[in-house]
Amino acid sequence: xxxxxxxxxxxxxxxxxxxxxxxxxxxxxxxxxxxxxxxxxxxxxxxxxxxxxxxxxxxxxxxxxxxx
Length: 68
Known about the structure:
mainly alpha
C-alpha cells in the first residue's frame, strides 16, 4: 500500500486547484488582479482543506464487494 503524507497530498491539491483557476483566467489572454486573487485563494483554500482532512486509516478500508 502506498502511504502519502498529508503535506504531499495538500501540495498536489493546491497545485491542481491553482492550475485549474489559472487556465480559466488565461482564456482571454489577460490575467487581471481579480483573477490573480482568485488563483491565490484557490491554491490556499485547497492547501488548507486538503491538509486539514486526515487520511483514512488502513484498517478502515472497505472490503471489495462488501459495500462501504
